[in-house]
Amino acid sequence: MTKTICITVLILATTMASGQINYTDSKGKDIFTVYQTKSLSFPISPAATEFKATLTTRLTEGIQYYLPSGPNDFLVEDTSNGGFKYRTQDSSKFTVAKSWGAIMSLKTGGITNVLSNSSAFNPTYGLALGISNNIDVFNNWDNIRRLNQLFIRTFSLTAFVNRDNVKIYDTLKRAGSRQRPVSAGLTFDHTVFSKKLLPGKWILAISFSATAEYGWNTADLVKYQDNKPIYTDPNAVSLGDVAGRIGNLDRQNNFRFRLSVPVFVPAIDLPVIDTALQLTVIPYYASFGKADASFSRQTGVFLNISPGRFYTRDAKLVSGVGIGIDWIRTKEKWSGRNVYVAGTLNIQELFPHKDEAAEKIR
């Protein structure tokens, strides 16, 4: 039954819906996240044993914001359906389209052995529910730059519950037992897009997230292997895969704060294949740890490559894949460089389709 559930989540992650464009660091934690409605995608991260499916459902009808050009250009109540509409529908004045969405995310981890049908398969599970304020479409960047406010923003708040699955070795009893601790927490994510800080077709964003978790000290416990050598000689010994962790499993409050500054570079045209490539450079910094100890620090940069261009009419943030490098400072010592590949693949973007969300907003 357990394997059936995990395989189902895996299939959902690769064939059904994900409303999230998510780029991560070398630990698989977010560095830049934006929720979108009706996207078919799945994440790629250094945490290769974790599969995740995220669905964002629109709670409200999309609202189209535009440049006022006269006294009658404003949002008014539509008595025919109880909603709102604009007195003018001149698409040349449109700026952005926004909506509210509900988030549901399912994930399963520790699935290394699922394909080999191993009896040692011990999965982890996660569930997240939340709400997001989405930018569905960037209609016209030239109009956006003419707005009075400096930023346009998107944000989300999610509550999550995770169930771990780990074998804990008791040094007094000299025996290990499998534990399934449950943790819970909140994540707030906020991103602003600047219209005027960079010239021309360069676009800058500033993204911040904060996570508070009532969790466990699992990551602080030392890993161990069963004392059953696979190979031994006078100079070397191989004990096989990690079996679990040694120590006492205790409650602790965990926190993570992250800041990133995505820079959208003008797209590169590829006339040979009649397309363009959008490059996004994302420098980031994170601080994380438990409440009663000094925090670890992480700094790095990620280069994302995606098809199409961001500075165009009716643009969306398009999923892609990239390469990153970061360093982590723990206990006054920096790690070596961590080089990794991560990103988000959108199944819908691989095939021709009609953008129903954009059409509905229109």
Q: Which radius of gyration do the C-alpha atoms yield? A: 23 Å
Strand content: over 45%
Element-by-element helix/strand order: HEEEEEEEEEHEEEEEEEEEEEEEEEEEH
The general outline is elongated
> What value does the average pLDDT take?
78
Helix content: under 10%
Which regions have little confidence, pLDDT < 50, spanning 5+ residues?
Answer: 1-18, 350-354, 356-362
Major beta sheet, specifics?
16 strands, antiparallel
Distance between the termini: 45 Å
Total of helices:
3
Number of DSSP strands?
26
Structural class: mainly beta
Architecture blueprint of SSEs:
Blueprint: H1 2-15, E1 20-24, E2 30-35, E3 41-44, E4 51-58, E5 63-66, E6 75-78, E7 83-86, E8 94-109, E9 124-138, H2 141-144, E10 151-163, E11 166-170, E12 175-179, E13 182-194, E14 203-216, E15 222-224, E16 231-233, E17 236-238, E18 244-246, E19 251-260, E20 263-264, E21 268-270, E22 275-290, E23 296-307, E24 321-330, E25 333-334, E26 338-346, H3 356-361
Parallel strand pairs: 11-18
Antiparallel strand pairs: 1-2, 3-26, 4-8, 5-8, 6-7, 8-9, 9-10, 10-13, 11-12, 13-14, 14-19, 14-20, 15-18, 16-17, 19-22, 20-22, 21-22, 22-23, 23-24, 24-25, 24-26
Concise synopsis of the structure shown:
The protein is mainly β.
Task: Please give a structural write-up.
It is elongated and about 75 Å long. The protein contains 3 helices and 26 strands. The chain is 7% helix and 53% strand. It is mainly beta and 362 residues long.
